[in-house]
Amino acid sequence: MCLQFLKTVADIAVDGKQVELLWDTAAQEDYDLLRPLPYPDTDVILMCFSIDSPDSLENTSEKWTPDVRYFCPNVPIILVGNKKDLRNDPQTVRELSKMKHEPVKAEQGRAIAEQIGAFAYLECSAKTKDGIRKVF
Q1: Cβ-based neighbour number of residue 63 at 10 Å
Q2: How many Å is the Cα radius of gyration of the chain?
Q3: What is the DSSP letter of 119?
């Protein structure tokens, strides 16, 4: 199987200054050796999880925080809960309850953010655009 790593970087201007914005890195284990390549000169880490996936929140503290703290020890982390719109979605709640789970509560996200020493905890929904401006 051939996996492709796509460059997801944009050059933007912030307050008249050109900056490089990296908006995604590969999460698959196949990219473990490549993932640290963009870390040098990183100013902030947006560590994301899906509100409809409690396991993804657990991964932020179990997998991603140790990785980031090793390669970027002094870079602030902002923990971001994605898919905020699914927290109260009946179908999502029903599907998760079949596995004896429930959507991640904001309090749970804030607790993990505090546990990992995150600078902030934010939530957003790409579908409804709620919280997007605050994250970016």
Answers
A1: 13
A2: 16
A3: S
Residue 16 — very low, low, confident or very high, per pLDDT cuts 50/70/90?
confident
The answer to whether the CB of 71 falls within 8 A of the CB of 36 is: yes
Sole residue written with tokens 């999460």: 27
Q: Is the pTM of this model over 0.70?
A: yes
Q: pLDDT by residue (tens digit) across 81-99?
A: 999 999 999 999 999 999 9
Each residue's pLDDT tens digit, 109-136: 999 999 999 999 999 999 999 999 898 7
Domains of the chain listed by start with CATH number: 1-38 (no CATH), 43-135 (3.40.50.300)
Distance between CA 81 and CA 51 in Å, rounded? 6
3-state secondary structure 72-90: CCCCCEEEEEECHHHCCCH
For 3, list phi and psi in degrees, rounded to 5: -105, 145
Residues 110, 113, 119, 122: is their CA dihedral positive or negative?
negative
